[in-house]
Amino acid sequence: MGETRVSNERFRIGYLIKVPHQSFLETAAKDPALELVRLTLDEGENAALAQLATCQGYYVRASRDELPKPFHVNDTLLARLPNLLMAASQGAGYDTIEPAACTRAGVLLVNQAGGNAEAVAEHAVGMMLALLKRFPECHAAMREGRAQRREEFMGRNLLGKTVGLIGIGNVGTRTAAILHAAFQCRVLAYDPYVDAATVADRGAEKCDDLAAMLAQCDIVSIHCPLTPESRAMMAADGFAAMKPGSVLVTTARGSIHDEGALLAALQSGHIAAAGLDVWEQEPPPADHPLLSHPAVICTQHTAGVTHESRAMITRIAAEAFSAFAAGRFPPRIINPEVKARVAERYRAALGRDITDHA
């Protein structure tokens, strides 16, 4: 990339149309070194991209179906952004950003991991409770006037159940804590990137074999990012490995579970119920069969959408841009291998060094 030196200007951060919470604007406004550039589509995508090309930072929507494809961060877009030094996702996920493309372009990528962990963990546990107590079936029957004997909706307690977590990062760790403290659950975790001692510190027992874990669990909850390794991780073989009558919850990312295979497992009765916050297409089409299944709770990727979590993740993002503009690498870097290259580009563009220290 051929950068234009902008050392006498403020650090410009572009974002498309809106930010997730006012906290981002309020926090950024406290730093005179930052200049926010609101991009609109009023004059077309090319005009907005031309504005973005003047920016050193890009605050990127994390939901792939809410961000127009030309604004997804990949090799094609980065070739048009010669001044870009840092991209920050608007959440913990970064489906709209290709880390390898950022690394090739010498662009730092950060996310806001942990900022919405409480909200997502509460949502996951709430779904577990609702599914075990058979809320969706009972609600539908009452709403439709199909009153039945109460025993037709006999549920199960969460207390003492075995719960398997696929992924034990920030959200998985908080989920495990809630399950232990409130419900005395046995918590297992499958996460090939975390060693057994760390898993134990996070409140779970490490399982090296996913199928073996699935077979033991009353509830399986997905908390891993969408990566090439996790895409379609829960397909027909995964659902077949689950304990008969068990429950699936996912607040992670669409495409980790195969929606057709899940529907088949529900229709066969092998899986008793599912709580789905994430979808292959968001929102899913109105005629999606999982939306009308009586044993499914559906939400529209809202697990992390609370006032508290949105305020926190946007403040974290603004603080990351402030740290970077002040010459410090921020936390939550997704591609740390690019730091030396970024340091060179930073010096050439801004005329000063960037370090790992305050």
From TrEMBL:
This is D-3-phosphoglycerate dehydrogenase. Pfam families: 2-Hacid_dh, 2-Hacid_dh_C. Keywords: Oxidoreductase. PANTHER family: FORMATE DEHYDROGENASE 1, HYDROXYPYRUVATE REDUCTASE. The keyword Oxidoreductase applies. Residues 50-335 form the D-isomer specific 2-hydroxyacid dehydrogenase catalytic domain. SUPFAM superfamilies: Formate/glycerate dehydrogenase catalytic domain-like, NAD(P)-binding Rossmann-fold domains. InterPro entries: D-isomer_2_OHA_DH_cat_dom, D-isomer_DH_NAD-bd, NAD(P)-bd_dom_sf. Belongs to the D-isomer specific 2-hydroxyacid dehydrogenase family. Residues 125-303 form the D-isomer specific 2-hydroxyacid dehydrogenase NAD-binding domain.
